[in-house]
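Dock AFP; give full complex structure.
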Amino acid sequence: MAKIGIDLNRFILEEERKYPEATGSLSIALMAIESAAKIIASHVRMAGLADILGQAGKVNVQGEEVQKLDELSNEILIRHLSDSGQFYALASEELDEPIFPPQGVDANYVIAFDPLDGSSNIDVNVSIGTIFSIHRRVTGTADDFLQEGYKQVAAGYIIYGSSTMFVLTTGNGVNGFTLDPAVGMFLLSHPDMKIPEKGKIYSINEANAKKWTDPNLVKYIETLKDEGYTTRYIGSMVADVHRTLIKGGMFGYPADRKNTSGKLRLLYEAAPMAFIIEQAGGKATDGKTDILQIKPTDIHQRTPVFLGSKKEINQLLEFIG
Ligand code: AFP
């Protein structure tokens, strides 16, 4: 197991050395995400101040255009990922169509990302995050985004919370790195993260219960209440999943009459989080199928999501599976 305190760059390089056939391309790709994340983190830390100076579409006192943080995060990621030359194509929640950067014509990977998830929480100083999912280039077309989640080469999220943390899997377990602002490095703080077998928390927007399309979901939640569970719901997927990873329990965003396929996106929300949770020993399902087995048909498709500790997800499947 890697040593506590080792920085993310070194960790990535040491992981690469375990595979003599590795070209170094994935390492450069991950380091590009890391650089972008540090810059986004520094902007997130200024969020309240930027609001004082001006809002999106306005000019601040220095005469600079002030951008909305989610647009800015998207641009920062596009620039860093394109310049890395390691991505043949980029798909983002903020882009209708994928981008094919000229620097990446010969690259091995495609990446899908949500640049700033939970952005409605920015103004109220609640944790938000960036989520990404990397697949191998296979056909060299946009169809490469439509690969099952189990084929992900790497996935992760960066949570901008009480500290900034980078949680990463390359299919070899899950490791968490905390940004030390004094030195500007992500340092290994949570090696080999494992989700508890069982938790005490369920996390779901229960205000939608009357609209849920599966009435058995209500019965499941009532059972958890009877068993003494408590509820936590931030409304920022990265934060709710991060807590679930550390404390166990269940996070869900089900289908309802308004969102008939749920709200969360398969490619850059559900699948990368499912990869992390499963790598940490948990489970993720849409209620019928393991999230990692779903073959996407559209880059922006939505899916119901339930993920968390094995105990809670197995119990859920007894009700709705
Ligand atoms: P925003 O980016 O618009 O804040 O949406 C965040 C999100 O997609 C995800 O992070 C949350 O889990 C989910 O929405 C919360 O949705 P509800 O407000 O409908 O519960």
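Observed: The mean pLDDT is 93.
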